[in-house]
Design brief:
Helix content is 20%, strand content 35%. The strands form four sheets. A five-stranded mixed sheet has the order 5-4-7-8-9. It has a five-stranded antiparallel sheet with strand order 14-13-12-15-16, with helices on one face. α1 packs antiparallel against α2. The protein has 310 residues and is of the alpha+beta class. The chain folds into two domains: 108 residues, Nucleic acid-binding proteins (OB fold (Dihydrolipoamide Acetyltransferase, E2P)); 189 residues, DNA ligase/mRNA capping enzyme (D-amino Acid Aminotransferase, Chain A, domain 1, 2-Layer Sandwich). β15 and β16 form a beta hairpin.
Length: 310
């Protein structure tokens, strides 16, 4: 199962996902998989590690002192880091596995300020996003970062939205998170607290301690900071029975399995079939003819089996 989730994670960060976010989260939770990103063999280290965020799915799981946290939208795009040295854009990397990413410096020069009025060495992190009017907007943005052609990249409708700054030195002391966002605006960046997300995909909210000294004091696990959390939007599925599995040939000639379901109403649509991706996915969910399954409509359109229900 680890190999399958590693494969799914790699495809996700390359902008070509083989399963949905909800399906990945469900499998990761079931099998205790907590690796984020994928290793870039020909990459460059981030100056500061790009951690993932702990996910919760209910407001009751948020910190008790939530009034001390800054809440911002959780944009659904491709995370990147941008390194500035003596006020000049020196390096930009994809997220990769959080430690090492691919060099996308020339691409990012067309999306962000090439100079900033600060001579410290700093790393700015944020998200490259595309309008949600574009089908599979997150994949569109992530895939763009892997394009070889700059001309093709520049034709894509992309925006960079910043959300944090890391310094090598802190001569003026640690700023509050709200002050960091204000500085990003002063530098000429779109930043997440004031960015108009109405036309861009989001998948929840991020809560981060406003007091950065306290944030630092809380430290990190091996995967995420203890002073921040992501409240995710969980799509509730419907339970039905798996009646059969058939194999169909797609437009590209690829043969893939399809679940035949006891028809069920999901958001006003009668669903009787759902994609199963491949045999690995069927095995990972331990699906059997006659078992009960939870079904969602991914993107409000495509029916997918999320898990087996015993």
């Amino acid at each position: 199962m680890k190999d399958f989730l590693d494969k799914a994670s790699k495809h996700y960060y390359e902008g070509d996902p083989i399963i949905t976010d909800a399906e990945f989260d469900s499998l990761a939770d079931r099998f205790g998989y907590n690796r984020v990103g994928y290793t870039v063999t020909d990459g460059i280290p981030h100056l500061f590690r790009m951690y993932s965020l702990q996910k919760v799915f209910s407001e009751t799981d948020l910190p008790e002192d939530i009034g001390n946290y800054v809440c911002t939208p959780k944009l659904d795009g491709a995370a990147v880091s941008i390194l500035y040295v003596k006020g000049m854009l020196a390096l930009s990397l994809t997220r990769g596995d959080g430690n090492i990413g691919k060099d996308i410096t020339e691409k990012m020069r067309s999306l962000v300020p090439n100079t900033i009025p600060l001579h410290e060495v700093i790393q700015i992190t944020g998200e490259v996003v595309a309008p949600k009017t574009i089908p599979n907007a997150r994949n569109y943005a992530s895939g763009a970062l892997n394009l070889k052609s700059m001309e093709e990249f520049e034709q894509r409708d992309l925006t960079f939205v910043a959300y944090d700054i890391n310094h090598t030195v802190h001569e003026r002391g640690r700023l509050y998170a709200e002050q960091t966002l204000s500085i990003l605006r002063d530098f000429g960046f779109s930043e997440v607290s004031t960015f108009d997300t109405d036309n861009y995909p989001t998948d929840g909210s991020v809560y981060r301690l406003n007091n950065c000294d306290r944030f630092d004091a809380m430290g990190y696990t091996s995967h995420h900071p203890r002073g921040a959390v992501a409240l995710k939007e969980e799509k509730e599925g419907r339970i039905t029975k798996l009646l059969d599995v058939v194999w169909q040939v797609g437009k590209s000639g690829v043969v893939s399995p399809v679940a035949i379901l006891d028809p069920i109403d999901i958001d006003g649509a009668i669903v009787s079939r759902a994609t199963l991706h491949n045999i690995e996915y069927i095995r990972s969910l331990e699906l059997e003819i006659g078992c009960n399954v939870e079904v969602i409509r991914s993107g409000e359109i495509i029916p997918r089996i999320l898990r087996r229900v015993d």
